[in-house]
C-alpha cells in the first residue's frame, strides 16, 4: 500500500516553506513511487540538483521531474522560464513529469499524475506576463503548464482525489500512451490537439462533424495550415491506426477503452 501521508521529518532542518515542501515531496516520491514505465518498485533521487531531472529509474534509466503544489487543483502549474521550457520541448530534451498536489494541513497527497514527455507541446505552455520594471528580474517571462490541455490519454493518474490507483492499471495506461509517440513536434502537436478535441466530446460515439466543430480552434493553433478539415481526417486515421478510436460507419467513430 502506498502511504499517502508524507513524512515531514526531512524538512526540520530547513527554514523556507518552498524548501520544506521540496524535501518533503521528494522524500515521499523516493519512498513510495514505482516506475510507471517498467514497474520497478522504486525510483531513485539524483544525488545533486541535476538541471534536467529529479529522479531516475535504476532499472530502465528513465528520468522524471517532479512538480508539486499545495491545494487540490492541478489545472495549471507554475513553472520556470517560458523560453527554456519551449526549447526543452522542441528539442525533446525533456524528462517525463510527475505532477503532485497535496494538502498542507496534514501533508497528505491529493493527486499524483504521470505525464510522459511526448505529451508536452508548445500548446500546453502558457506565457506569463513579463515581470514589472521594478522587479529584481525585470522583463523575465515565466510560464504555466496547462495540464487540462493535455489529452486524458497523457495525464495518467497514480493518485486521484486521495485514492491510489492500482499499479497494473497505471502501467496499462502508460502502454496506451506510448502508442501515441510521435517524434516530430509539428505532427505531435496536430495529433494531440485533435485527440484533445475528441476527449472533450462527452459520448463514446461521435461523428466527423462534431470534430469539425473544433475547426476554428484548431485553425487558430495551427495558423500555417489552410486545410484544416483534411488534416482532422488524417489525424483521426492516425488515432485509429494507433488503436485509440474505431471507425464504425462513414463519418462515425467510437472511442476505445
Ligand atoms: Zn523503469
Identify the notable features of this structure and list them briefly.
alpha+beta; PvuII Endonuclease, Chain A; Arc Repressor Mutant, subunit A; seven-stranded mixed β-sheet; three-stranded antiparallel β-sheet; 7 helices; globular
Produce a short descriptive summary.
The chain has 257 residues and is an alpha+beta fold.
Question: Please, could you describe this protein's structure?
Answer:
Helices cover 31% and strands 24% of the residues. It has 2 domains: 9-178, PvuII Endonuclease, Chain A, CATH 3.40.210; 185-255, Arc Repressor Mutant, subunit A. The two termini are 26 Å apart. Helix 4 crosses helix 7 (228-241). The strands form 3 sheets. The protein has a 7-stranded mixed β-sheet with strand order 1-2-3-5-6-9-10. The protein has a 3-stranded antiparallel β-sheet with strand order 4-8-7. The chain has a 3-stranded antiparallel β-sheet with strand order 11-13-12. A hairpin with a 6-residue loop joins strand 2 and strand 3. The longest helix has 16 residues, at 17-32. The chain has 7 helices and 13 strands. With 257 residues, it is an alpha+beta fold. The site of zinc ion has 8 residues, from loops.
